[in-house]
Amino acid sequence: MLLEPHELELFFKLHRALLFFVNQRLTVIPDTLASPDEFAALSPGVRLKVRDALNANLALVESFVDENPAHCLDDELDIVRSWRHLVTGRFYVFRELKKYTIFLSTDKQPVAYGVLALSQPFEELIGPNLPVLTQTVLLPFKDRIVYDGLMSSYNVSFGPGIRRNLNEDFKTAKDRHGIVTSLPISTTPMPVRAPKAKPAPKPPPREVKDESLVVIVGLIEQFCREHLNEEYAGLCRKLAEKLARKRPSPLGGGKPTTWACGIVRTIGWVNYLDVATRKDGPDPKPKR
Description:
- The chain is an alpha+beta fold.
- It is built from 10 helices and 7 strands.
- It has helices at 5-26, 36-40, 44-56, 59-67, 74-82, 122-126, 160-177, 210-227, 230-245, 256-270, and strands spanning 87-96, 101-105, 112-115, 132-141, 144-147, 152-153, 179-180.
- The chain is rod-shaped.
């Protein structure tokens, strides 16, 4: 997002007037400059030296406001006075959002700033592939944050490990201050977020009591001894034990006699014990 044209004009008017004043006081550039407009026509590298001199002598901001050499209005002087709260250093241009671009500071305790571009989108200045490491100055401007128009970027690529660390730093910064959109940073602590309600724990699966399985297996073995054989009893017993290992096990409900009947019936059905034409009894070698 960019400043509106009338805001952009105001920003450049005030910023070049301040830097022209700083150069007059400190003589960073020995050449004689007649006006702020002549200063603005200098190369970025030259203007950068004066900008750095201002950062090292912020008391000159108040001197400019007191003397008002550019004959600024009161609300314009308030904007210049707010520049005492500038933030200078290296930043990761981290993410483009609808309202601003996230600048993530490289401090030990990172801060995420929401910054507006001036006359060109940041994508045109530094390219679309974020993050990009830059060095610049952030300035307050009418309850928003802009950069001062002088930016240098580093031709550095970031691997997945560094990108993960930056994502973690961004989350930490948001938890500490939120996304900072005005300067100075508010000293009011961020409201503590209510912890998300944890879902009610699921009841543990009902365990099948050992005695239930014992009873079912006992009924099966008794029936197999009387009407089938030991091999059928073994197959039925394996099926009962397999059902008991399921979580949750179906054997936890119902009557043991019903389960015993169903298990024997299932093993018998796959071995054709219910075929009416069979007259010679069960197959001595049931299917497994």
